[in-house]
Amino acid sequence: MWLYPGYYLGKWEDMPPPILTEIPKAHYDPRSKPSATATTLTGSFGTFPETRILSLNGECGVTEFFPGQPWSWTFQCDELHYILQGRAEMTYSLGGTFHTERKTMHIEEGDIYIIPLGARVEWKIDANDPPLRALNVIMPGHPAPAHLTSSKTSIKKVQ
């Protein structure tokens, strides 16, 4: 059982293996479009499954947030974001303030920031702007719950 605070308390056999004998690699083409979309209770976003690396050591992938629809998330781990494209208004609250203070910052291509465990974040991308694309990095890694990786997942291929 992985006991790093807030990361993983599932079954040992569901964990991805650590990197031991070969460094994993993925390729991101900035001209590509998302090949899948995911829908949550807080909105939809595009994904690039070919960019996802999942291991016990870390996890990364590229995500695209669509313009014109706010998207929010409560983070269950520390996560680094590097903005590859676009801009947005990001409003957040942190556990250190018991979520009593909301702060807003503007993010754009080239920005890098770390979102801590427990943060509540909402992104707003103007309808006239391009999508917001970010490289997301989580270290150490943690596997997605089985219900998100099963064949009944809400992730769909884009036609």
Write a compact overview of the structure shown.
Helix content is 3%, strand content 38%. The protein has 159 residues and is mostly beta strands.
Description:
The protein is mostly beta strands and 159 residues long. The chain has a single domain, classed as Jelly Rolls. 3% of the residues lie in helices and 38% in strands. It contains 1 helix and 12 strands. It has one helix at 146-149; strands spanning 36-40, 43-47, 53-54, 59-65, 71-74, 79-85, 87-93, 103-108, 112-115, 120-124, 132-138, 156-157. The strands form 2 sheets. Strands 1, 2, 3, 4, 6, 9, 11 and 12 form an 8-stranded antiparallel β-sheet that branches. The chain has a 4-stranded antiparallel β-sheet with strand order 5-10-7-8, with no helix packed on it. Strand 3 (53-54) and strand 4 (59-65) form a beta hairpin. The protein is globular and about 45 Å long. The N and C termini lie far apart (39 Å). Mean pLDDT is 81; it is low at 1-9 and 145-159.
Instruction: Give the CATH topology.
Output: Jelly Rolls
Instruction: Round the mean pLDDT to the nearest integer and report it.
Output: 81
Instruction: Please give the CATH class.
Output: Mainly Beta
> What is the SS-derived class?
mainly beta
Helix content: under 10%
Number of helices: 1
Number of separate structural domains: 1
Name given to the CATH homologous superfamily: Jelly Rolls
Q: State the low-pLDDT regions, or none.
A: 1-9, 145-159
> What is the 3D shape?
globular
Work out the radius of gyration: 16 Å
Q: Which architecture name does CATH use?
A: Sandwich
Biggest pleated sheet: 8 strands, antiparallel
Order of helices and strands: EEEEEEEEEEEHE
Span of the ends, CA to CA: 39 Å
Total strand segments: 12
Strand proportion: 35-45%
